User: Fold this.
Amino acid sequence: MRMYKMLGLAVAIAAASTFALTGCGGKEAKTLVRVSHTQIETHPDHIGFVAFKNYIENKLGDKYEVQIFPNGSLGANEKVLELIKQGSVQFLSVSTANIESFDKVYAVFSVPYLFTSEKAYEAFISNPEVLDKLSVNAKADGFTAMAAYTAGTRNFYSKTPIKSVADLQGKKFRVQAGPTNVAMMNAFGAAATPMSFGEVYSALQQGVIDGAENNELALTDQKHGEVCKYFTYDGHQMCPDIVVGSKVFLDKLSDSDRKVFEDAAKAAQEAEFAAWHESVQKAKDQATKMGVEFINVDVNEFREKVLPLHEQLLKDNPAMKDLYDEAAAFNASHK
Ligand code: GCU
Assistant:
């Protein structure tokens, strides 16, 4: 339902490079730092970015002003990634699925049941070496992975109850963009319909799709629970939102300023993690009041249906093998 009303603004921004804001009273000119995300202002991603802004402005407030654009107001993530590459938007939190078409390394998170526990997943995405491995193609991508926000576990939700894999057969489910998601959904026996996050509500309402898959917050923040009354805990994916920083912007910074931005990204991640689990609980309570039923299923049945896909996915995309193996090591050490 959400429309990207401010696309005109995004285009205007694309034309300009980071410009200086001249403070009044002859103060130093400040550089405006634009941060974009698609969530609402109570979402943990936004809370993370408020910590990011505060950290930078506390340390370097005389030089930088950080402005956060929530609700996809600068455009859908796929489009803002282009602006990041040009350097006209400096930071963005974006699902790994949306980065997959720019850089195949990020596809590793779309592999269904990559992680065996949320504990292993959270440790993995908090690990600086994992961020370095994700950033291996930073030069070509035009951005670096500065931090990773958790986005919990992705599960199916629908207008009719999904109690087993049989209930998915032939149904149209929205997935995030990217070939791995399409392959996963098709392996489950449903018809994959990739589309942007902001388009899902109206697609559900108009009957273009029968269901979607996400964490619990989509039911409330995006109001998908108004249309989908059944949420099934099958836990097929754990995909983080990566805080990407524009390389054009970062490369222009002095070493000491760059360190402040890197530390700010760490502070953002800590704030986001701290907000996450409470937000999920609140979303569950609110969704229950909206009439959404939460269904527990035999997760093994779902897992077994798509596990054979792993081999094919790795064959099609060898770029993710290193991180895939690393994830397996985290599963073994974080039981
Ligand atoms: C989650 C995630 C977003 C993503 C969205 C989606 O909300 O945090 O980054 O865009 O799912 O399904 O598109």
Summary: The first helix runs from residue 7 to 15. Residues 154-238+283-333 form a domain with the D-Maltodextrin-Binding Protein; domain 2 fold (CATH 3.40.190.170). Residues 270 and 322 are 26 Å apart (CA to CA).
